């Protein structure tokens, strides 16, 4: 029976023993289990209407652009194919810098998802060749960072 008593847990002191010399109430009460931390619902600065075909961030599903804002699907990003958009939402803009791209010298600023901070592409700030001026103020988003949502068949 001594071996059996050694295997029994003493609840007042939480030790394995055959009996306890600690009087009840001498130990502080047990701590409650840690509360489950609830994450706040993810919110975006802008939501696009559900009735429109949209492009969203593939990483966090933040809305990025309506299909109606698409100008061209024939662009090349830093890591593959990209789309040119007239306007986008839920993106932040980094500092502008000059880059020599396939179509010449441009002043561009990297854009990133406001929700998950993933770099998505860039914004054309200034084009130095007259044939490229139509890109100024437009946005490139790489296809690998976008997913189509709402009514694509």
TrEMBL record:
Similarity-based family: Belongs to the yippee family.
Organism, as annotated: Aphelocoma coerulescens (Florida scrub-jay)
Protein name (Swiss-Prot/TrEMBL): Protein yippee-like
Originating gene: Ypel4
Any one GO MF annotation of this record: metal ion binding
UniProt key word Electron transport: no
Pfam families cross-referenced by the UniProt entry: Yippee-Mis18
Coiled coil: none
Domain (Yippee): residue spans on this chain: 53-150
Keywords assigned: Metal-binding, Zinc
UniProt key word Acyltransferase: no
């Amino acid at each position: 029976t001594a071996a059996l008593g050694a295997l029994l847990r003493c609840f007042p002191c939480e030790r394995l023993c055959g009996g306890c010399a600690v009087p009840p109430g001498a130990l502080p009460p047990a701590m409650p289990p840690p509360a489950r931390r609830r994450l706040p619902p993810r919110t975006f600065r802008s939501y696009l209407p559900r009735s429109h075909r949209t492009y969203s961030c593939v990483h966090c599903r933040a809305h990025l652009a309506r299909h109606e804002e698409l100008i061209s699907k024939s662009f090349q990003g830093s890591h593959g194919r990209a789309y040119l958009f007239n306007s986008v939402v839920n993106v932040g803009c980094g500092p502008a810098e000059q880059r020599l791209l396939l179509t010449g010298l441009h002043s561009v600023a990297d854009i990133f998802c406001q929700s998950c901070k993933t770099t998505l592409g860039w914004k054309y700030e200034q084009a130095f060749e007259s044939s490229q001026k139509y890109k100024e103020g437009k946005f490139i988003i790489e296809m690998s960072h976008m997913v189509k949502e709402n009514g694509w068949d």
